[in-house]
Amino acid sequence: MSRKVRRATVISTTAIAPHLKRLVVGSDEFHDFPADQQGAYVKVLLPHAGQDEVEIDLKAAEPAPKRSYTIRAIDTINHTITLDFVVNQHRGIATDWAKQAKPGDKLAIAGPGPKKLDDFSQSQYLMIADLTSVNAINGYLQQLPATADVDVIIHVTDAQDVIELDTIKAHSKHTINWLITMQPQIDVVDQASVLLTQYTQKPLIFMALEAAIVRTIKDLAIDKYAIPREKIVCSAYWKQGVDADGKLTV
After folding, report:
1. How far apart are CA 31 and CA 20, in angstroms?
2. 143: which of 31, 104, 167, 168 lies 20 to 30 Å off by Cα?
3. Nearest to 180 by CA among 164, 169, 171, 191
4. Residue 34 backbone dihedrals phi, psi, to 5 degrees
5. pLDDT of the chain along its 250 residues, tens only?
């Protein structure tokens, strides 16, 4: 990804769902931030515990804690970007920071990095996500062709976590299914399998969610439904029981 790091501050915070907190962050250094990067990701750099300032040198002896987040929106006039943080589900450096974040708090933004999905020429798409990657789906839905058949599965554990996406209403062939379940390792896989059974052509599959679920669906798509590997774009956004630093969580 781009190594450019921009200092920023929190402009506003909004609890948009029980497990999602939306932060608008701004900076004059965003004046050259690319405008077409909804759905791409950035690295959010945070202050060390007990500090206000952020270490922006990525090669420092004690670099800032950082996590990847997907861009929800970009405002090139006011030089802000909007990010959604998953909160109230687990403990971690970024979630704990976001839960307490308030206007004026300092952070830094590195990136943006490349979009995971860059093929918008297919006629059939299957997209699978959870709250950690919902903004990737939000960004891609605005770029996929209106003529394409698009099936989206988004897993949430609470009906109140269903949020509005910036879909294009004219794209009537794009179907979004919010799957509310406490057993995603079973129900998400089952729903993906049902859709794969129904397709008459090989879809392009985009997945961004928990690592074990990604692996299960990828193996299923390849072994049972003969989906070519090059038509599967997947990213394990997180791993059950392990934090982003590879440490076991309780």
Report:
1. 27
2. 31
3. 191
4. -60, 140
5. 446 999 999 999 999 999 999 999 999 999 999 998 989 999 999 999 989 999 999 999 999 999 999 999 999 999 999 999 999 877 889 999 999 999 999 999 999 998 999 999 999 999 999 999 999 999 999 999 999 999 999 999 999 999 999 988 889 999 999 999 999 999 999 999 999 999 999 999 999 999 999 999 999 999 999 999 999 999 987 787 555 555 545 4
CB–CB of 64/108 below 8 Å? yes
The conformation of residue 242, written as its DSSP 8-state character, comes to B
Separation CA 112–CA 78 (nearest Å)? 18
Query: For strand 106-110 and strand 41-45, is the pairing parallel, antiparallel, or unpaired?
Result: antiparallel
pTM of the model: 0.91
Q: Confirm if 228 and 200 have CB atoms less than 8 A apart.
A: no
DSSP string, 124-164: EEEEEEEGGGHHHHHHHHTTS-TTSEEEEEEEESSGGG---
